[in-house]
Amino acid sequence: MPRNGRKAASGDEEVAPKHRKTDSNGVPSPFCFDTPDTVFQSLISPVGQEEFFTDYWEKKPLHLQRSDPGLASYYKSLFQLSDLKGLCAQGLTYARDLNVCRSVQGNKTVLNKEGRVNYSQLKKDFNQKATIQFHQPQRFKDELWRIQEKLECFFGALVGSNVYITPQDSQGLPPHYDDVEVFILQLEGEKHWRLYSPTVPLAREYCVTLEERIGSPTHDIILKAGDLLYFPRGTIHQADTPVGVDHSTHLTLSTYQNTSWGDYLANVFPNFLYDSLKTSDITRRVGMPRRILMGANAAPDTSRQLASLLRSVADQMERGEHELRAGDMKRDFALHRLPPYTPGQDDISLSAGKMPALEDTVCLRFKDHILVSLETCQSPSDGSVSLVVDVMHSLRNRREKHMMGQSGDDDDSGGDDDSGEEEEDAPSEVTWHILHRQCT
């Protein structure tokens, strides 16, 4: 979303060098941060984007075996077991920040305690075969903030993350499927993954599945440090740390929750239909049959009439006669996404320097963080309706609140149980911001 830079004289300025050679831990970074495209390409390398979206996206799993010591070292720097002690000292809370759990023969047990996380107790649980499920580590880890912020710009959708640390000969979660596209990065050790054919392709919800009902695995994979595994939403999966491997740490990046054509249509259609009612064609303004809302038998041709009206609306949509307005989805994205990657800076939305004049040339910083929405607005005084242009930005979003808006349970998504989300912020803390509202 928009942000005023200190100086807007030299084109698309970024808050930090576009391509950093090392991460915050001094480990050489194999990621290219020039653009959102280059970050995603770094993630799926050596597969190209065209091949990925043609052959794999929403279709089938992809396993990338890297055998690259440099990439393995970088992955490990993103999050590792030894980070937990320092993070616990920051006042972590069970359920909100992490879960402690174990799955035995398809039955999951949550071992969370009350209140603050005690590192000694956490270590004791881990030594007794429990998995540590750390919610949204991008709130604490700068490099994950940097990666996920770019990926949210790439997808135009929220990107959550979670870390799973599982001791040897143990499993954290039972077989299940998620409602998100999943990218698994193996950070430490090895993890044994079994994937199964979806019972609900491109699922819209998280669901635990009974092992006796899912058949044989379509993929039986050992992920090693530096490897990546992608699978579409709805893919049934389970994972365990093999015997002989001290522990496994993997990062789940997840996206495209509630971002289907159906979701978009549900948001766009009411606005489009409202606009179409104001045209010279009175067909859709003719009254519906009497008593239909009272449960009376509808006229035999009611369904046919509605289908005919829908077809005429679809024809208008195809001809582009009205604006496609997805204001609710845009507002939700603006509200919940990460702010631009600006470590060490406070309020980046504050302007530095004088306001531009009409004849000035203005260059935008963070233009991927600006969303424009055209909405209807009814006057409280006389009831008149006008169109309003909202220009929204996410510069005031708080990184520590990212993906923490709702409670979840136990998927690999980063949007439900993986997210460890809480209740929505109070209205005073709403973080999307309208830069300008202009009636038309």
Automatic annotation (TrEMBL):
Transmembrane segments: none annotated. Keywords: Dioxygenase, Iron, Metal-binding, Nucleus, Oxidoreductase, Ribosome biogenesis, Transcription, Transcription regulation. Its cofactor is Fe(2+). Its main location: nucleus. Residues 408-427 have a biased composition (Acidic residues). One of its GO terms (biological process) is ribosome biogenesis. Its EC number is 1.14.11.-. It comes from the Eukaryota. It is found in: Nucleus, Nucleolus. Binds 1 Fe(2+) ion per subunit. It catalyses: L-histidyl-[protein] + 2-oxoglutarate + O2 = (3S)-3-hydroxy-L-histidyl-[protein] + succinate + CO2; L-histidyl-[ribosomal protein uL15] + 2-oxoglutarate + O2 = (3S)-3-hydroxy-L-histidyl-[ribosomal protein uL15] + succinate + CO2. It is an enzyme of class 1 (oxidoreductase). The keyword Metal-binding applies. InterPro entries: JmjC_dom, NO66-like. Residues 136-276 form the JmjC domain. Belongs to the ROX family. MINA53 subfamily. This is Bifunctional lysine-specific demethylase and histidyl-hydroxylase.
